[in-house]
Design brief:
About 40% of the residues lie in helices and about 20% in strands. By secondary structure, it is α/β, with parallel strands linked by helices. An eight-stranded mixed beta sheet has the order 1-4-5-6-7-8-9-10. The protein has a two-stranded antiparallel ribbon with strand order 2-3. The longest helix is centred in the first third of the chain and has 15 residues. Bound molecules: iron/sulfur cluster. The site of iron/sulfur cluster has 11 residues, from loops.
Length: about 290
C-alpha cells in the first residue's frame, strides 16, 4: 500500500483484506456513535473529482490487476449517486480484472437513496454493502446514537436486498451492557431475521479511550458484560436467529471464541460450541 496515497487511519472489513482500497471520502458523515473512534480524528469530507481521479491513477500504477475494490472511508454511499455511478463505471474500465466493488453503508444513507438509484449502482457493479446494524433494539440504538430506529434499520437492510445487492450485517456483542443484554440478543436476532442478510458478523464491544461510552462506564451508567456473559448473549442470539443460507462469522480478533457456519443449517452445532466454551474452565464464572 502506498502510504501517502491515503488519509489514515484506514479501515476495511476483514473480508476485504485482499482488496484494493480506494478512498473516495474521508471519515464518517455521521461520526456520532458513542462506542466508535474509527474516524474521530477526521473531519468528514468528500474528495473532489480531481482528487479521486489522481487517487485512482496512482493506485492503478501498483494494482492494475486488482479484482476487488473496497471504497473507503466510513460511508461512501452518502455520495451523490451520479458521481458514485460514474466512479464505479470508470473503475471497471480501468481495472480489467475487476469483479466486485463494495463499501460500508450507513442506514440513513441507504434510506436516502431511491430503489432506482440503488438498482443503478448494482447494475454499475456495486456488489455488496456492509451495514453496521450494531443492535436490533431501538433503545440500544438510541443509547449509542446510531441515528436510526430498529424499524429503520430493517427498512434499510430490506431495501438493499430488494435491489439485488449482497448485504453483510454486523452486530456488536455486549452493546446493551448488563441491563439490556437479553433485549440486545433477542431484538438483534429479530432484526437480522427480518433482513435475512447473506452474511452476518458478530464483533465484541471494545472500549476505545476517548469515547462517550468510556465516560459512561466511568460514571457507572454502563456496565460491560464479562466474557462469560458475552457467550450467554451469543447463545441467546443464536437460539433466536431464523435465517436461511446466511454465512455467520464470529471470528474477529475481538471475539472470545471463534464461530463460523451457515445459518440455520449449522445453528445446533454453533450453539453446541458456545455451550462447550461455557462449560470450560476458562469461561466459568469467576475466571474472568
Ligand atoms: S456510523 Fe459507523 S463509522 Fe460512523 S460513527 Fe457510527 S459506527 Fe462509527
Amino acid at each position: 500500500m502506498t502510504q501517502d496515497l491515503y488519509d489514515i487511519p484506514l479501515y476495511r472489513p476483514p473480508s476485504e483484506a485482499n482488496s484494493l482500497i480506494l478512498q473516495l471520502t474521508i471519515g464518517c458523515s455521521h461520526n456520532k456513535c458513542t462506542f466508535c473512534t474509527m474516524y474521530k480524528a477526521k473531519k468528514y469530507r468528500e474528495k473532489s473529482t480531481e482528487e479521486i481521479k489522481e487517487h485512482i491513477n496512482r493506485a492503478k500504477q501498483n494494482h492494475l490487476i486488482a479484482d476487488k475494490i473496497f471504497l473507503a472511508d466510513g460511508n461512501v454511499l452518502v455520495m451523490e449517486t451520479e458521481k458514485l455511478l460514474s466512479i464505479i463505471e470508470k473503475l471497471y474500465k480501468q481495472f480489467p480484472k475487476l469483479r466486485r466493488v463494495t463499501c460500508y453503508a450507513g442506514p440513513r444513507d441507504i434510506l436516502a437513496k431511491s430503489e432506482d438509484q440503488l438498482l443503478a449502482l448494482k447494475d454499475a457493479g456495486l456488489k455488496m454493502l456492509y451495514l453496521g446494524v450494531e443492535s436490533g433494539s431501538t433503545e440500544i440504538l438510541r443509547n449509542v446514537n446510531k441515528g436510526v430506529s430498529a424499524d429503520e434499520m430493517v427498512e434499510a437492510g430490506q431495501k438493499v436486498k430488494k435491489c439485488g445487492i449482497n448485504l453483510s450485517c454486523m452486530i456488536i456483542s455486549g452493546l446493551g451492557g448488563q441491563s439490556l443484554w437479553e433485549t440486545h440478543a433477542v431484538e438483534s436476532a429479530k432484526v437480522i431475521n427480518s433482513i435475512s442478510p447473506r452474511f452476518l458478523s458478530l464483533l465484541t464491544l471494545y472500549i476505545d479511550g476517548g469515547t462517550v461510552l468510556e465516560k459512561e462506564i466511568a460514571a457507572g451508567n454502563f456496565k460491560l458484560l464479562s466474557p462469560r456473559q458475552i457467550l450467554e448473549e451469543t447463545k441467546l442470539m443464536l437460539e433466536n436467529l431464523q435465517v436461511n443460507n446466511c454465512i455467520f462469522r464470529s471470528n474477529h480478533a475481538s471475539n472470545y471464541i471463534a464461530l463460523q457456519g451457515t445459518l440455520n443449517k449449522d445453528k445446533a452445532k454453533l450453539i453446541k460450541q458456545v455451550n462447550a466454551a461455557l462449560n470450560s474452565k476458562e469461561f466459568k464464572e469467576g475466571c474472568h
